[in-house]
């Protein structure tokens, strides 16, 4: 099983990262998506849902789950399971961003933004679809710029989504 997951990570990483380095505008956009676009997602949740009657709930679930998933669950998993970043173990990659050397599994960005997106989705399906696509773009960009493996992003997406669903159940209960 480990060999299958390793192969998936390597092939998936190469397919995505090999797209980098050919077009300066695409590279710049992906660096933006990997590093800064999330701030726009955070801000837009506050702006778009400000006047909605479910503002407090969507903020509690989306931000609460994003913060808990990223700063508790990701921290625990990274402590227990070290996974070196792709730029540390592969040669001939298109490295577009510098990053710390901490464990890459799971992706903190994917975890945070998928939790945020799922929190939105639980209260507004139409907007939620857009947020999930944009969270996916953040995750894709993290691979594109060489700081994550595909399984880092997939694990982060699942962790974020499950945390948002759990937080939503807590919000409804209390």
Automatic annotation (TrEMBL):
Q: Name one Pfam family in it.
A: PAP2
The portions of this protein that span the membrane are 29-49, 58-81, 105-123, 130-147, 153-171
Keyword annotations: Membrane, Transmembrane, Transmembrane helix
Q: What Gene3D superfamilies has UniProt attached to this entry?
A: Phosphatidic acid phosphatase type 2/haloperoxidase (1.20.144.10)
Claim: Membrane is one of the keywords in the record: yes
Q: Which domain of life is it from?
A: Bacteria
Q: Check the record and name the InterPro entries matching this protein.
A: PAP2/HPO (IPR000326), PAP2/HPO_sf (IPR036938)
Chain ranges of the Phosphatidic acid phosphatase type 2/haloperoxidase domain:
58-168
Keyword Ribosomal protein attributed: no
Q: What is this protein called?
A: Phosphatidic acid phosphatase type 2/haloperoxidase domain-containing protein
Lineage, uppermost ranks: Bacteria, Candidatus Yanofskyibacteriota
């Amino acid at each position: 099983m480990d060999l299958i997951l390793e192969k998936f990570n390597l092939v998936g990483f190469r397919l995505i990262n090999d797209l980098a380095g050919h077009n300066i505008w695409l590279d710049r956009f992906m660096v933006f998506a990997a590093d800064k676009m999330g701030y726009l997602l955070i801000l837009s949740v506050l702006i778009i849902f400000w006047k909605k009657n479910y503002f407090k709930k969507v903020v509690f679930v989306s931000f609460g789950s994003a913060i808990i998933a990223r700063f508790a669950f990701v921290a625990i998993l990274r402590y227990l399971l070290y996974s070196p970043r792709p730029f540390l173990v592969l040669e001939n990659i298109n490295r577009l961003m510098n990053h710390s050397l901490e464990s890459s599994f799971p992706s903190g960005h994917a975890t945070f933004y998928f939790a945020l997106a799922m929190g939105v989705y639980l209260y507004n399906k139409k907007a939620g679809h857009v947020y999930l696509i944009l969270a996916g773009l953040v995750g894709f960009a993290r691979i594109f710029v060489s700081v994550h493996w595909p399984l880092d992003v997939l694990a982060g997406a699942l962790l974020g989504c499950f945390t948002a669903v759990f937080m939503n159940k807590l919000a409804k209960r209390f």
